[in-house]
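Hi R.,

Here's the chain you asked about this morning:
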Amino acid sequence: MRRNLVLGLIVFLFLFFGQTAYVFAADQPKMTFEEVERLIDSSPNKEVRAYFKSVPRGIELKSYDVILRGVHREPGKKVIMFVMSRHIAAGMSGSPAYVDGKLIGAVAYSFSNFTFSSYTWGGISPISLMTEEAELDNQNLGITRTFNYGGMLFKPIIVGNRKIPGLESVSGGKFIVTTSSAGTTTATKAAKPALKAGMPIVVDLVEWTDEKGETTTISAMGTITYIGDDGKVFAFGHPFLNSRKVVYSFRTAEVIGTVDSEYDSFKLSGKSSEVLGAITFDAAYGISGVTSLDELSKLHDFTLQLKREGKSIQRFSIKVADSVLTPLLAQAAFRMIGQTYGAPLPQESSVTQLETRVELDGYEPIVWKELFASEIMRFGPSTIYLSSYDQAFQVFFTRIYGSLFGSRYDFKISNVSVSANFISGRDRILKLGAYKFPNKIIWGENPVLEILFVSQDNSVAIAKSIPIKIEWDKVEKPVYKKDTLNTEKASEKVVWGALVINSAAMFFSTLTNGERQKFLPEYFLGPEDFLDHFSGQLEITNQKIFIRVNVRPKSGLLDETIAQAEDIIPKEAVADNDSEWYVIRGGLAGRKNTVREENVIFFNFDLPQALGGYIFGQNMFESISFEVVLEN
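And here is the predicted structure, written out as tokens:
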């Protein structure tokens, strides 16, 4: 485990990091963006010699000569442009750039097109704007990550060298994935490294530890640009997740070496230090944070247990960075863990049973249980395979966790527990095979529905006889008997009805206006009301089939009821004299529903759950019409 004390690593830390306390730079002389621009404009050929510092191998800083060629301006972005004789490598992001010993900014952008030119173009984010942005905490969340200069496309320098499924759109889609075995990592009480500009910085987004104590981390490596007298750390020079207020843990590391190529140059990270602090700001001109561990309490905790046929495979403790993209980061971690530890393959026929519990401070936990089957979709000659595990966690993070995390009520999620049980086997999706239901129902007698479900490969079939209980006191006694000919009936005196069979996915599409206001309200009376409705919706699972009976309650011509609701304007509401609107301060104490129709009454029945591991098809919808009559 990362915090085990190992003598060999203490020796390593002494040699690698040297000092036993943080060391910060004295007040570094700086140049503003405008000063750099004036210097370039006044220089011969509009070229200024400069250099930046970074670590190509080990821990020693190296200087790289560059030539400043100009500046680029566009709304929300100012960049100092330069050329150099070598390739810019992933991991150089944030390298401090200087002119005559004065800090001008962070190496942050590179020309992204494939080129065999004798020099490389790059861009520097001004240090004056990096510090100003962090102090003002501005709102530039929509800032452009790329820009064009001289007909060339510039992109932020990639901060890793490995693609992670699900994070392709984040920071170039490349990261560092490291695994440390139990008992072979840095000790908690080991020496703190001496931090200075130009050193590598490793920013952690996700970390998980298995039952054996082995820890895996998804990180990004860049370079420290500047450290203030107060210990505030600035790095990268370009947005990472571009989420403004965040919490990422950060460390430093040695560099094994730098791989140079025309296509993709990057640093190879080696052994890293313990966590040194927290990055707390991520915006247009880079990331910044503090050398304190206090903010790390805001990281998000998950536990994931993987099972196969009910037997435990492995259990993981997971920590995820705090950001607007936390659900996406957690989802990527779940995907990687599943791929590594035996989750069903996309081509494998399987079912994943997901059981989840989301703990909310001050409220009852949200509990959910659902089944997901693998699927095959064909589009002409193409075949797409969807794994049951992938479908399960995608629905969880979008529909459950994502809804709570992004709620306007700012729920504090203290812990999330997830159990994924993999059930292998043949096709487990049940389709509607056949059914039997009378087209004439005797008033006062509950009809019976016989129904059959079968899997597409006929590996299993289930059948059930279901009495449909109707509240007959709400239905007018009809005038026509069972044997009355249709030609003898007046249509307005016929008492008719319909029985609908649908799946959980189709259930919400068949709601009436009144029921929709009840099940899917457009507003909530408070967090408790929101959570009650949320929990109620989660009870509708794909292991259930819903039977719905619609009955015309009385004979005679239809008499449409006008839209109405009670007590729209409370007595205590105050009229605004200017707008003539009544202001209901503090919102509503109770829900207001509008009744739009009363021509049909509805009875809903849900069948018992399917057999363990089987799922009802999600597009199931069948309608059966009937007439209510008297016995002959």
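One quick note: Residues 388-405 form the longest helix (18 residues).

Cheers,
M.
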